[in-house]
Design a protein that fits this description.
The chain has a 3-stranded parallel sheet. Strands 5-6-7 form a 3-stranded antiparallel sheet, with no helix packed on it. 49% of the residues lie in helices and 10% in strands. The protein is mostly helical and 545 residues long. Among the domains are: 12-179 and 246-291, HUPs (Rossmann fold, 3-Layer(aba) Sandwich); 180-243, SH3 type barrels, CATH 2.30.30; 443-545, Arc Repressor Mutant, subunit A. It contains 24 helices and 14 strands. 38% of the residues are buried. Strand 1 (46-52), helix 3 and strand 2 form a beta-alpha-beta unit. The protein starts with a helix and ends with a strand.
Length: 545
């Protein structure tokens, strides 16, 4: 009972502060509150939607769009008692336009080009169709993150008749819709464009053909078949036709009553056109956030066909999914690099935000990213080590498995085990994988300059004097005081020298924390190893073998 009372009080407190919160999910949620103008929609709930094209497998962009939409949905729930639903819509009646490079039975797929994805045979031979296969992968993908949503299939809505009234309405407003669509098309595309794409009853292909006439009264269109030349009349209802996607998008908003849908910056013109279609059909276009697209390591736009980005599986190999959600939360309207080197920082910033949450005032909690990542109820923070520190520990001890890392961690954190420190255990496993694939191949050590060598040897002498266990702060103070005694231009130069000479990298962890974890004795051994006389001239970089 006390827990229930506490939950109600916390929600009320969050609601009060949410109206003034500066975080973008609350800014978006307030747009929906304004849209409602104090009334509950006739359908009885606020509808969020996100779309998916099942011609390929779900990817990191799919995760980002759904995760961000759920953040806005939760923020709205904090501000309003109006029920909400989230539709994940699969455009699975779209024609297969090209054979993906990463699937089996490509020759078979080539024989079914331009057929709806839900009639193309499954190249994996596991499901009813290629569309059904990819839809199943989407649901499994979203379920693995615990997302709450309702899956919607375009094929089911077209064939069941759910879209019939809207399709007839498109017929009734055919000329108006053509008037807004044609000016946006190239000349050759205008010649054959129609909002309707008939499905050939013989070949089952989605046809892009000129429509010779429309008959709203009978709900039919007529066209000349591109292969036989025969004049064909077909109903637009019950799955005999589908809509071009921009008209489909606006029509879908109208049928469902979608209140909120975000989309990529590249779809801004499409969103504007679909909004016009929605209004023509009598609907109210949803509130929208246009998010920026991701960039690769060279600052180029990520392309699925080029494969120049980071996949969801790759991120999850090196970091927990909460860190990816944190990355998605950060500044969605700014272009960001999405490459392997952004992972350590995302992990550490997430851990810091989680540690801060419990002690923050309520007005600050609602703007903390973990409030949105965990639907307002973040897990209790653990005493964990930074990912950066763990990566450097893996480097100096050459860790090939988590057991090696835990040996050091348990000396530093007595009582911690993989069983009672779940997040730390995850980070250790991820750090070993990241070290092996990205840090180890790029380690570059150099010999110290004379100033650095003198200072590092003095650090060795000071550490040798340590008898009792010192805290990370006390060890940091020793490193700091040694650096101040020597003629470095600044202390940053001193610490960079420590990183490059001792750790093989130009950047590194807080040195006191690292020494506390690695151990004073081990640190002294490392200094001896890296500062002994070598044949390589001082300052020259050597690759780690």
């Amino acid at each position: 009972m006390l827990d229930l009372i506490s939950t109600i009080q916390n929600r009320a407190c969050s609601k009060d502060h949410g109206m003034d919160a500066k975080s973008w999910p609350f800014e978006e949620a307030r747009k929906i509150v304004k849209r409602l103008n104090g009334a509950v929609p006739l359908k009885g709930y606020v509808l969020f939607e996100t779309g998916y094209g099942p011609s390929g497998l779900p990817h990191i962009g799919t995760f980002g769009e759904v995760a961000r939409t759920i953040m806005v949905q939760h923020a709205f729930r904090v501000l309003s008692d109006v029920p909400t639903r989230l539709f994940v819509f699969s455009d699975d009646m779209d024609g297969l336009r090209k054979v993906p490079d990463n699937v089996p039975n490509q020759q078979m797929l080539a024989e079914h080009l331009n057929e709806p994805l839900t009639t193309v045979p499954d190249p994996y031979e596991k499901f009813e169709s290629f569309g059904h296969h990819n839809n199943a992968m989407l649901r499994s993908f979203l379920d693995s993150f615990g997302f709450e949503y309702e899956f919607q299939s375009a094929t089911e809505h077209y064939k069941s008749g759910n879209f019939d009234a809207m399709l007839v309405s498109v017929l009734q407003h055919y000329d108006e819709i053509m008037d807004i669509m044609l000016p946006t098309l190239r000349d050759e595309r205008r010649a054959t464009y129609s909002p309707f794409l008939p499905i050939c009853p013989q070949t089952h292909k989605v046809l892009q053909v000129h429509i010779d006439y429309v008959d709203p009264a009978s709900g039919t269109i007529a066209y000349k078949h591109p292969e036989t030349g025969a004049f064909v009349e077909t109903p637009v209802t019950r799955g005999n036709c589908k809509l071009q996607w921009k008209v489909d998008w606006g029509g879908r908003w109208c049928v469902f009553g979608v209140d909120y849908e975000m989309s990529g910056k590249d779809l801004i013109p499409s969103f504007a056109l679909s909004s016009k279609v929605c209004r023509i059909l009598g609907g109210n276009p949803p509130e929208n956030l246009s998010y920026e697209l991701f960039l690769d390591q060279n600052g180029q736009k990520i392309s699925k066909s080029k494969g120049n980005g980071l996949t969801i599986d790759e991120w999850l190999k090196y970091a927990p999914h909460e860190s990816l959600a944190y990355y998605m939360f950060q500044s969605p309207q700014k272009a960001k690099r999405l490459y392997f080197d952004v992972i350590p920082r995302a992990v550490d910033e997430y851990v810091v935000m989680l540690a801060q949450f419990d002690s923050q005032e309520s007005s600050k909690k609602v703007d903390n990213p973990v409030f949105h990542i965990h639907n307002g109820a973040p897990p209790s923070s653990e005493n964990v080590l930074s990912f950066n520190v763990l990566l450097n520990l893996a480097s100096v001890c050459g860790a090939d498995n988590a057991g090696v890392m835990w040996g050091f961690v348990q000396k530093y954190m007595p009582g911690a085990t993989p069983e009672n420190a779940n997040l730390l255990d995850k980070l250790i496993h991820h750090a070993v994988a990241y070290y092996h694939d990205f840090v180890k191949p790029n380690l570059r050590y150099r010999d110290p300059s004379e100033i650095e060598k003198t200072a590092i040897r003095e650090l060795f002498d000071e550490l040798q004097k340590v008898e009792a266990e010192l805290s990370a702060d006390e060890l940091q103070c020793i490193v700091f005081e040694v650096g101040k005694k020597h003629p470095f231009d600044n202390l940053r130069q001193w610490f960079q020298g420590l990183y490059e000479v001792l750790l093989g990298n130009s950047e590194g962890p807080r040195m006191g924390s690292f020494i506390a974890l690695f151990g004073v004795e081990n640190m002294c051994q490392l200094i001896n190893e890296k500062t002994k006389n070598k044949d390589v001239p001082a300052g020259e970089v050597r690759q780690c073998s």
